[in-house]
C-alpha cells in the first residue's frame, strides 16, 4: 500500500483537517437531467432558458425498441446539461398547467474545488482519494471499479443494461456546474438516477419537485464518511486466530487485507466492506466530515 494511503488510514483526523485545508469551496447542483414532455412541440422559451444552463439543451431521439418512443405521456425528450435553478424555474412557469413534464434521468453532483495553485490537480486527486478511502454508499452492493479516470460504485451502463442508481467520482476535470467559475480540476462526486422510480425515491415526481429540491439536505444524508479501526484490530475481527500475533504481525496482516480493497493503488472503503461486511458495525462516523461540504 502506498505511503499516502497509509497516512490516510492511520491518522484519519489529521487527514481530514489536511483535506479541508485544500478545499476552497464546494458547489452542489444538477449536472444533467432528462425531461419527458407530453406534447411533441411545447411552447417553451428554450433560448431564454439556455442562458441559465452552463451546458447545452439537447433533444433526445429514442429508438423503437427501448419502450420510450411511443409512450403516451412522453412525446418529446430534452436533455439539460448543468441547468441552474433559475433555468428550471423558467421552464416550470412556462409549462405549469399546460404540459406534463417528467424527470426520467438525473445526475446530482458535488464539486470540491481546491485553492488555485500549480499543484491544484494533485490536490483534487488527494481529495478524491481521501473520499474513496472513507466514503460508504448505502444500498449499493457492488465493488467499485475504475474506467479511464472515473470510479464507479455500480456497473457502468453497457449494451443498454442499466442499474437504477450509480455513484461516480473523478478528479481530472474542472467543475461544470452552474455555480462554479473555477477552471482548475476539482473532485467531482455524482449520484446518477436512471429511472423514474429511483428519482421518485428522492421525493421528485415532477418538475416542481425538482425546482424545490434541497441539495444541502441530500448531501448531508448521502455523503457519509467513516473512520476505520486501528490496524491491529482489523485482523483479529476477521481472523480470530491471529489474536496471539505480535503488533507488527497484525499490522502487516491488516495491510494485506486493505490491499484487497484497492483499485489501481487507491484504497476504497466500499470495496473493503463489500468483501468483509462484518466490519461495518465497527466503522465510526467521521466527526466534522460536514466541514468538507461547507
Structural class by sheet pairing and helices:
alpha+beta
Taken from the alpha-carbon principal axes, the silhouette is elongated
Number of domains: 2
Report the β-strand fraction as a percent range. 15-25%
Helix content: 25-40%
Radius of gyration: 22 Å
* SS summary, helix count: 11
Largest sheet: 8 strands, antiparallel
Q: Strand-and-helix sequence, N→C?
A: HHEHEEHEHEEEEHHHEHHEEHE
Q: Order of strands across the biggest sheet?
A: 2-3-1-4-8-7-6-5
Total beta-strand segments? 12
Give the overall average pLDDT: 88
User: What is the rounded distance between the termini?
Assistant: 31 Å
Comma- or semicolon-separated keywords:
294 residues; alpha+beta; 2 domains; 8-stranded antiparallel beta sheet; two-stranded antiparallel ribbon; 11 helices; disordered N terminus
Mind explaining what this structure looks like?
With 294 residues, this protein is of the alpha+beta class. The protein folds into 2 domains: 3-19 and 226-293, no CATH class; 25-222, no CATH class. The chain contains 11 helices and 12 strands. It has an 8-stranded antiparallel beta sheet. A hairpin with a 2-residue loop joins strand 10 and strand 11. Helix 1 (3-10) crosses helix 2 (12-22) and helix 2 (12-22) packs antiparallel against helix 5 (120-134). It is elongated and about 75 Å long.
